Write a sequence for this structure.
């Protein structure tokens, strides 16, 4: 398979002139001494250590928690580029929400044969308890994180959808704060769209979907599994920024289908729960009976219309990578439009022809588990050994429906500061989309994740990736 040329977001393709959007960053890098850049890099790490923003890595014997590395060179997106992305994101989240409402309602998309019934009805993430239930405001996908990759000046693709409990927004906000402290002179050269109002936008979104009669001054809480969770910092950060309570399951109880929070002044009714716990654990009476993280009776209160869950229970099916492969058809079914942001071409290994192609081309493909996340359970063919490819072929033959395959895209690169100076590293982008009763808001920018190892395509923080501040600029 021919190697694709790599598009660098500052330099373009090999032989191109530097792109105008990066002209000021290019000049700043050329004017700034390497030693000063390394000093700023160390200062950034110091900021994050003092803030306490860490990420737990399960199964890592070296440490329970670590900092997510932060790169001090911003990623630049022009206003024109962003407007295109924004339109595509709004279209996609609108369709995802309509899909969830339909599969838990009339199932018209299944009756039309657009997507196989068994892929939905037999999916482990399909929650039977949500059938026939309409959440407040008809909103399922209150908070979405849509992962986007770029391969050329005008070539953007959606890599995956995250509408269950998307994470990472705290890093987007802290990255901006640290960049402003470290590089005020660079900010002065650009008009950068703000992201710091995200907590207010999130709070407004959650208030808008409070149960009937409770929208005026609803009580909102962030439900966390606790401080052992990998994203606990984010849970506490967002609760603090929104001015709402951070609670664990034991802090809540249900009486007469109403959720209450224990306080020093006595029980207080809770109207909206931004839950950062997966479906299986949120209510031991409805899901896993051995869960000690959730709230017994929570789903009964939800079905009674007395509390809103964000995101809605049952949204995890939209994260499934086999379902993802049908998103162009899903968008067309619900909006009547072609997808503004295309998917990465995807082979569904549950289909015999796709399985045969995948097995014949494992060395050139990326293979993922349909319910996988965090960069785990995947094969990156071009970077795998023969033994790894053979082992993965065995997994595919044993349970092909568990996997999808995609071509190895030439992900764009951005200038990144390493121990040896500035180099090009592969990046992706996770914009955040908020959907409430009053409409959809896309935060300008999002979280850029960067593969810090030269040539690596794995940007996930759990796999050693880092993050960048993302600037949407005029021009």
């Amino acid at each position: 398979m021919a190697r694709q040329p790599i598009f660098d977001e500052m330099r373009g393709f090999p032989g191109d002139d530097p792109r105008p959007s990066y002209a000021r960053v290019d000049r700043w890098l050329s004017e700034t001494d390497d030693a000063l850049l390394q000093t700023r890099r160390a200062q950034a790490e110091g900021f994050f250590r003092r803030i306490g923003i860490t990420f737990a890595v399960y199964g890592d014997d070296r440490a329970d928690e670590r900092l997510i590395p932060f790169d001090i060179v911003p990623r630049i997106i022009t206003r024109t580029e962003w407007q295109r992305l924004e339109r595509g994101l709004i279209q996609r989240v609108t369709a995802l929400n309509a899909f969830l409402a339909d599969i838990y309602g009339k199932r018209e998309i299944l009756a039309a044969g657009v997507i196989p019934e068994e892929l939905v009805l037999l999916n482990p993430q399909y929650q039977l308890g949500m059938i026939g239930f309409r959440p407040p405001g008809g909103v399922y996908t209150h908070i979405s994180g849509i992962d986007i990759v770029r391969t050329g000046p005008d070539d953007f693709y959606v890599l995956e959808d995250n509408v269950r409990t998307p994470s990472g927004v705290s890093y987007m906000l802290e990255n901006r704060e640290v960049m402003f402290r470290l590089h005020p002179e660079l900010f002065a050269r650009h008009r950068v769209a703000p992201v710091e109002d995200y907590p207010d936008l999130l709070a407004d979104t959650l208030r808008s979907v409070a149960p009937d009669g409770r929208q005026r001054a609803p009580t909102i809480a962030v439900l966390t599994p606790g401080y052992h969770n990998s994203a606990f910092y984010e849970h506490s950060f967002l609760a603090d920024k929104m001015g709402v309570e951070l609670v664990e399951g034991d802090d809540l109880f249900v009486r007469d289908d109403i959720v209450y929070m224990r306080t020093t002044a006595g029980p207080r009714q809770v109207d909206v729960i931004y839950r950062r716990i997966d479906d299986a654990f949120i209510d031991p009476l409805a899901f896993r009976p051995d869960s000690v993280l959730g709230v017994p009776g929570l789903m009964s209160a939800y079905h009674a219309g007395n509390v809103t869950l964000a995101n809605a229970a049952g949204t995890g099916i939209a994260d499934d990578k086999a379902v993802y492969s049908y998103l162009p058809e899903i968008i067309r079914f619900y909006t009547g439009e072609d997808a503004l942001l295309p998917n990465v071409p995807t082979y569904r290994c549950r289909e015999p022809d796709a399985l045969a192609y995948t097995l014949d081309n494992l060395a050139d493909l990326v293979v993922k588990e349909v319910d996988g996340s965090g960069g785990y359970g995947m094969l990156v063919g071009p970077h795998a050994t023969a033994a790894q490819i053979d082992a993965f072929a065995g997994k595919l033959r044993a349970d092909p429906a568990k996997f999808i395959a995609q071509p190895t895209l030439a992900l764009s690169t951005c200038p990144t500061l390493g121990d040896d100076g500035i180099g090009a590293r592969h990046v992706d982008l996770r914009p955040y989309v908020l959907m409430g009763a009053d409409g959809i808001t896309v935060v300008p920018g999002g979280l850029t994740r960067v593969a810090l190892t030269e040539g690596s395509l794995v940007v996930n923080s759990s796999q050693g990736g880092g993050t960048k501040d993302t600037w949407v600029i005029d021009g």
